[in-house]
Amino acid sequence: MATLYIASTETFVGKSAMCLGLLDHARRDGLRVGYMKPVSVAVVQTETSVIDEDAAFIRQYVGLSESLQQIAPVIVSQSVVEQIMRGTKIDYTKRLRDAYTKVARGKDLIVLEGANTWAEGSIVNLSADQVSDMLQAPVLMIVHYRSVLVLDAILAAQRYLGDRLIGVLINHVEEAKLEFVRSRVAPFLEQHGVAVFAVLPADAQLAGVTVADLHEFLGGQLIGPVEWGSKLIERLVIGAMGPESALSHFRRVMHKAVITGGDRTDIQMAALQTSTSALVLTGNLRPADAVVDRAEEGQVPIILVADDTMVTVDRAEKIFGHIRFKQVAKIQRFTELLDQRFDFERLYDKLGLPSN
């Protein structure tokens, strides 16, 4: 049996999506798979318990038979931290080991979803390195490529983990940087003993959010049928210029949400002449009837919010890239990218698994 720890050095780089894609591919290859999130720090309170939502989603999506308590055995909530600070002794290491033994029974591959940083889990003696050491799990690191400075994080992890780091997946690479990453960055890492299993391009479908996502995040009133909430927003555009300049700018940006004042009828009408997924109107001002009619004609939902334009833009920007992966279309798209570009045969060889 093989175990693989999926790690990162920051949030929102694609760990959960990678776990799902790997589980799906391995299962199609005939392997019996299991999944765990050894330590959970981002948890939510339900009516009956505290749970890790991502772990619960993956359990349901993949159809795993183990209980959520076995899949996510160590929950580091505020109350747990307070208990530890008061001197309460709980053996979380034993709890994790017992859960792992049960989940691993009869499996060919166990995928462990790591914490957001190496430090998370230290308070219960289950930081990323402690978990990978305890369960003898090789580490696959997921990184978000922004610049060559990502090499610092990768080489530091290599120095820290040694042979336990079996390689990296370089994710979210902008189109203009793809050739450089493939021809310069990846070979450099290979020369330094770090296997590069894939270089994945930034993908609008994966980075985008739906109108429903944005409405839920911003609040306010939605004008338009509920089914329009499935429309995908790939970019945010601020409508703060003159109508002629706005129209020229809007034509260059597809599948966008235009954020502008509720009293800017000229900007709103200009946006509706182009590929616009949603209008976000600020100041709690209802648009003119002509705008509502034109939006209905083009099936463009309108979100009315009370905040001013700059506050709304600041809030909306936080959701892009940070939206969770719990959308079937996104999962399927990421799995498709992995199937096309990820070197599963090389990974299987490093893990000692049979390859097809």
Helix content range: 40-55%
User: Got a strand count?
Assistant: 17
- Give the class from helix and strand content and strand pairing: alpha/beta
What's the alpha carbon Rg, rounded to whole Å? Answer: 23 Å
Q: Which strand-content bin applies to the residues? A: 15-25%
The strands making up the biggest β-sheet line up spatially as 2-7-1-8-9-10
Distance between the termini: 17 Å
What is the mean predicted local confidence, pLDDT? 91
Main beta-sheet annotation:
6 strands, parallel
SS summary, helix count: 16
Low-confidence stretches: none
What's the topology here?
Blueprint: E1 2-7, H1 15-28, E2 33-36, E3 39-40, E4 44-45, E5 50-51, H2 53-62, H3 68-71, E6 74-75, H4 78-85, H5 92-104, E7 109-113, H6 128-134, E8 139-144, H7 150-161, E9 165-173, H8 178-191, E10 196-201, H9 204-207, E11 209-210, H10 211-218, E12 221-223, E13 232-233, E14 235-238, H11 243-250, E15 256-261, H12 265-271, E16 276-282, H13 289-298, E17 302-304, H14 309-319, H15 328-341, H16 344-351
Parallel strand pairs: 1-7, 1-8, 2-7, 3-6, 8-9, 9-10, 14-15, 15-16, 16-17
Antiparallel strand pairs: 4-5, 11-13, 12-17
Helix pairs in contact: 1-15, 10-14, 11-12
